[in-house]
Structure formats: C-alpha cells, structure tokens
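Budget justification aside, the reviewers requested a transparent look at the raw inputs and outputs of the sequence design task funded under Objective 1. We therefore reproduce one unedited record. The lines immediately below are the structure tokens for a 106-residue chain.
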C-alpha cells in the first residue's frame, strides 16, 4: 500500500502524506511510511514549512536538539572506532601478536 501511494503521489511528500492519512485503516502508519519515503527522495525542503514547524514545536519536542545529540554521539563512536582500528593496525604491524592456536603444542 505504501509503495502504491508513493507512486501515485509521484514522490511528492505533501501529496503522499495526505493520501496516506486519508487512506483509512492504519492511516497514521501508512502516512508516516509513505511520507518518510517521499521525504527521503525529495528532502525535508520539499515538505510544507508549516508542517515542519508544527512537528518541530509540537508536544514540547525538540527534534533538532535531539538530532544534534545523535550526531554528536555518532561522531564520538566514529572516533572511538578509528582509535580501535589504529591500535589494531599497530599490533598487526608490530608482529608481536600470535593468533590463538598458533603456538606449538596447543
């Protein structure tokens, strides 16, 4: 259903969301899925600014600050992974390690 509405809306997030919301049955989920697909295709700029504003300010949510925190966390994790990789590279280059089972008599 989601893909059919996406196609009917020709990837337009605004049309897709309205179509999904008016479909019936599990309309909120359908609108969310088709809106997410269309938004991913066309970008946030394609969504009506008044909808974006309402979503960002409604229910006391602070989505932009949440996104900023998530990006900061991802950057920290990326830096940790780079440090682990550098340490592993050093160990491999030093030749001082032995794989398990490589020692004679094991």
């Amino acid at each position: 259903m989601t893909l059919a509405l996406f196609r009917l809306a020709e990837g337009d997030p605004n049309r897709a969301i309205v179509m999904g919301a008016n479909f019936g049955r599990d309309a909120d989920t359908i609108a969310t899925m088709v809106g997410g697909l269309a938004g991913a295709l066309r970008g946030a700029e394609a969504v009506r600014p008044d909808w974006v504003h309402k979503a960002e300010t409604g229910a006391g949510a602070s989505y932009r600050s949440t996104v900023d925190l998530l990006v900061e966390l991802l950057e920290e994790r990326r830096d940790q992974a780079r440090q682990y990789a550098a340490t592993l590279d050093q160990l491999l280059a030093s030749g001082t390690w032995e794989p398990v089972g490589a020692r004679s008599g094991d």
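The two ends are 59 Å apart (CA to CA). The chain has a mean pLDDT of 88. Computational costs for records of this kind are itemized in the attached budget.
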